[in-house]
Amino acid sequence: MRLPCMSLLLLPFLTLSLAAPNRRATTCNGSPLLCSRQYSNITFIGAHDSFALSPSLAGNQDYDLTQQLTDGIRMLQNQAHSANNTIELCHTSCSLLDGGSLAIYLGKLKVWLDANPGEVVTLLLVNNDDLPVSQFGAVLQSVGLDTVSFNPGKASLTLQEWPTLGQMLDQGTRLVTFMDTNADFQSVPYILDEFSNMWETAFDVTTTFDCVVNRTHGDPTTQLSTINHFLDIGTTIAGIGITMPDKPALPQTNAVSGPNSLGAQAQECVAENGRAPNFLLVDYYEVGGGSVFEVAAELNGIPYSQGVIASVPGTAGGTGTGGTGTGGTATTLAGGRETSLGGFLPR
Predict the structure, then answer these.
(1) Annotated catalytic, 81?
(2) Which residue among 195, 204, 270, 334 has its CA within the 20 to 30 Å range from the CA of 221?
(3) Could you tell me if 201 and 210 are in contact, meaning their C-beta atoms sit under 8 angstroms apart?
(4) Which InterPro entries does this chain map to (predicted)?
(5) Residue 69, CB-side half-sphere exposure with 13 Å CA sphere
(6) Is residue 191 part of a domain?
(7) Residue 331 domain-assigned?
(8) Is-catalytic flag, 229?
(9) Phi and psi of 85, rounded to 5°?
(10) What is the CATH number of the domain that holds 177?
(11) How far apart are CA 52 and CA 93, in angstroms?
(12) Per-residue b/e over 111-144, b at no fewer than 16 CB within 10 Å?
């Protein structure tokens, strides 16, 4: 069959249109400024031991993952143990603090991601009992997270090889999962080996923070970075020696500036490495009224203005004020208003 001349003339344009669709995502993690920025060039606030809730003495957070994400947390760090014939989220020992099964936790994450299609979230799994990666893959698959998980195409990526947030959202790959041991790209390609892709500073810090590389399997100059910014004190609970958050120090630990503050450690990392850190892990993120999110906003060059986040339990005045670290929405407990984030620091 012969096509009309005009149809033949249009074919190249039709082909071009099909081959290069317009980018759909216009707001990424709450900000249009982040859509064209690589995942590796963004600072995210993370919840250290996201599952470990107060009032347990072994707790690290006051609010569960749903509220954490609603308030702007974009990395969820957890400790996985084998217990009750399943993967449980426990602090040091399941007899000390058992935060429930990984499956239930990840089911809540899937619900939140489905309700917030413009957000990219990172999951960091600490595999305390050296379980095979296939067990974790099975849990992610059981709750449907495999369908929204980022597959890098190879076991590790350099900083320059990460996609932009806009590309990740357009492709529907909105969950990035790292695991510290036993990750196997050939077996479960969407669970990435942490230390082939990322380095960390020291954890269980009891005095002052620094930006020295503490753990990695690769070249830290080409990797993502995680800054452990939670001040601990040592104690014994039920005969088990653990570290627990230094709560009296939290207002300064989570502060924008000053000695041993989150802002000070972040700026030390910028000075030493020539780039902003990617993940800032904190305890009790709401202490400081949003200060941790202000630090990330400044590092990201995103305008910061106060929004409403959950308040410190037991304080007067209902909700506290703050904003989200990557420009995402800040929502009241009763449901939401969006805010923009401010401050400006070139990356």
Answers:
(1) no
(2) 204
(3) yes
(4) PI-PLC_domain (IPR051057), PLC-like_Pdiesterase_TIM-brl (IPR017946)
(5) 26
(6) yes
(7) no
(8) no
(9) 60, 30
(10) 3.20.20.190
(11) 12
(12) ebbeebebbbbbbbbbbbeebebebbbebbeebe
333 contacts 67 by C-beta, under 8 angstroms: yes
Q: Which residues are 236's β-sheet partners?
A: 241
- Cβ-proximal residues to 46 (8 Å cutoff; 6+ apart), any chain: 73, 74, 75, 76, 77, 122, 124, 226, 279, 280, 281, 282
CA–CA separation, 37 and 67 (whole Å): 26
Is the separation of the CB atoms in 276 and 224 below 8 Å?
A: no
- pLDDT (tens digit, 9 = 90+) per residue, 30-73? 999 999 999 999 999 999 999 999 998 889 999 999 999 999 99
- Residue 303 belongs to domain spanning: 24-322
The tens digit of pLDDT for each residue in 257-278 reads: 999 999 999 999 999 999 999 9
Write the single-letter amino acid at 326. T
pTM over 0.70: yes
- Asked, for residue 100, whether it belongs to a domain, the answer is yes
Distances (CA, A) of 83 to 52, 164, 197: 16, 38, 29
Tally of CB atoms within 10 A around 344: 11
Task: Tell me if 52 sits within 8 A of 77, measured CB to CB.
Answer: no
* Domain assignment present for 11: no
Count the domains in the chain.
1
Check if the beta carbon of residue 30 is closer than 8 Å to that of residue 327. Answer: yes
